[in-house]
Amino acid sequence: MASRQDSQEDPSDAGSTGLPDFGDNIDPLTFEQILEMDDDEEEREFSKSIVFGFFEQAEATFVKMDASLESKDVAQLSSLGHFLKGSSATLGLTKVKDACEKIQHFGAYKDETGTIEVPDKELCLERIKETMEPLKQDYAEAETILKRFYGPT
User: Which one of 41, 57, 115, 132 has the minimum C-beta count within 10 Å?
Assistant: First the structure.
């Protein structure tokens, strides 16, 4: 009888892609769509370039977000949240996407769902600031998982 670990790594299991358990950080179905674009399933050059390009993009965006927080530029924060939301959604980084969507809404003077107006700039900035820390933690967790998945560069 195969161990639980063996069955998780066996791509012949019903519905299994052979992907490791990404927990709730990464949606495996979305990420699998990126992997399907690889010509070589061993090297995974195409998907790896997309993922590692995202890492660079995210790090640069975090720097811009920090600067925008410092200058209290809520419109720029909303735009940056929207930008990073799209990139992270493409890869299936669900927690990162969700946090970026909240920042997008707060920067547009709305609540975290984007349905209720919040006309208080300072309150919106505070909510963005409170969202940034878990966003960066969730990003770091996803980055660690994906770097482990791809192995040494």
Answer: 115
